[in-house]
Amino acid sequence: MAEYDYDLFVIGAGSGGVRASRVAASHGAKVGIAEEHRVGGTCVIRGCVPKKLLVYGSHFAEELQDASNYGWTVEGMKFEWAVLRDAVLRDVTRIENAYIATLDNNKVVHFLERATITGPHGIRLASGREFTAKYILVATGSWPVTPVFEGSDLCITSNEVFHLPTFPNRVVIQGAGYIALEFAGIFNALGAHVTVVNRSDAILRGYDKALCDRLLQITMARGIEYKFHCPLTKVEPSPEGDLLATPGQLDPIRADVVLIATGRKPKTEGLGLESAGIVLGKNGQIAVDDHSKSVCDSIYAVGDVTDRIQLTPVAIREGHAFADSVFGGNKRKTAYDCVPSAVFSQPPLAAVGLTESEARNKYGNIKVFSSDFRPMKNVFASRHERGLYKLVVDANTDRVLGVHMIGPEAPEILQGAAIAVRAGLTKADFDATVALHPSMAEELVLMR
Ligand code: NDP
To answer: What distance in Å separates the CA atoms of residue 380 and residue 348, rounded to the nearest whole number?
Structure first.
């Protein structure tokens, strides 16, 4: 008889958990997985996927507006939130089902209920069933953090934003990070009046300052209002049935929806980790080593719950490396250098490697090349918005340390550049590459 019911039991069927269970099973492990919400996790159910579809949906506003310059007459144009919302939610269900099929095809036994840990090898499901596993992987992700103030319970988070019953014509968004600026772009493009309120005057902290300034300038011109150094102090219902949101000492702003986007915190509450001797970090995270192992030898953790880099592809890498290391006889780590990232704001930002200030701190002697250009598409559409690309280069070795871009399709373009940065290519290599003309991407090889 086997010593344990499972070789691996995974808690959380999001990006990291599903990848780890599928790969572990392909290596011959007997795998169980429990999920208390929906299979697919934040990325599929209430994050990257539905957000990107809303971004696509909202882009039509700009395309339709520009269409007449290209000879098109579009009559009777109208937008229906319910149509877009329901189509997006249907696609989310389609992908969820594909994830479930992946688990089934790999003979991963799934339980659609909450699981908690009862000891280094023990799991208890909400229904009361108990299992043992040689290894437990915690991949429970993260959850929105919402500051508490008067009326904060009247606000929504990114969990609820995809389900709004009607389109909000006036939206107040607290925070100026990824989620805040992506939804500011979506609602603004779809015709809402958007006000972003933030506790500091920094948007997208961690991204190149010049790119952030460019985003601020373009989005303000597009009609998004910003209120800095004044986080919300109060939200109350008005006699007219909408909301009054008060930023700091400023006058209240009328809103149909107040969205809070002030970061996400590892989802570890009540998981029973203490029963295995695991003490949580200050954000509630599970501390792990380079191989995603916690202080308990049989318990590993991957993804947002470890509070390393809160990005889906990173969780997937960690889950894959864990499964290969523990079940595939191929012990390996996840590389965290040169992780590309993007903000699907309008226009979007994308970056890989070191920012100018990080590179200066680390290498001292650096060179910065930039291209500040008006994309051909914008010129033709009489849009004055300009793209900005920057290359950060080590002056001693000529190695490109970072690529930073804002402009249409920046994330699509950056993925290729990320390969070059990761491979350690030099500015001379970029220069030696023939431009692909006419494109925006060619700016990457034309900076002198
Ligand atoms: P971010 O960390 O990106 O931004 C949080 C924002 O909220 C910042 O502007 C911050 O201000 C502000 N803030 C933080 N705490 C408080 C507080 N207590 N009161 C008032 N304001 C506060 O978080 P998000 O929620 O936007 O996103 C969470 C994570 O999800 C991201 O870090 C990212 O990793 C991931 N994500 C990735 C996406 C992508 O890859 N495209 C898309 C969406 C999410 P300040 O800067 O001053 O601290």
So the answer is: 20
Mutate to test the pocket of ligand 1, among 179, 181, 227 (most ligand atoms within 8 A of CB): 179
Dist. CA 94–CA 217, nearest whole Å = 38
Query: For residue range 366-381, what is the model confidence (pLDDT) as tens digits?
Result: 999 999 999 999 999 9
Answer yes or no: are the C-beta atoms of 1 and 128 closer than 8 Å.
no
Cα of 35 vs centre of ligand 1, distance in Å, is 25
d(CA 145, ligand 1 centre) in Å? 9
pLDDT digits (tens, 9 = 90+) for 296-343: 999 999 999 999 999 999 999 999 999 999 999 999 999 999 999 999
Give every CB contact of residue 421 below 8 A, 6+ residues apart in sequence.
338, 352, 353, 400, 401, 402, 403
- Domain limits of the chain? 6-144+265-327, 152-262, 347-445
Q: What is the CATH number of domain 152-262?
A: 3.50.50.60
User: Are 6-144+265-327 and 347-445 equal in CATH topology?
Assistant: no
Which residues does ligand 1 sit against, CB inside 6 Å?
147, 175-180, 182, 198-200, 202, 205, 231, 261-264, 310-311, 341-344
CATH class of 6-144+265-327: alpha beta
Mutate to test the pocket of ligand 1, among 48, 172, 178 (most ligand atoms within 8 A of CB): 178
Q: What is the dihedral of CA 345, 347, 353, 356, to 10 degrees?
A: -110
Is-above-0.70 flag for pTM?
Answer: yes
Amino acid making up residue 185 = G
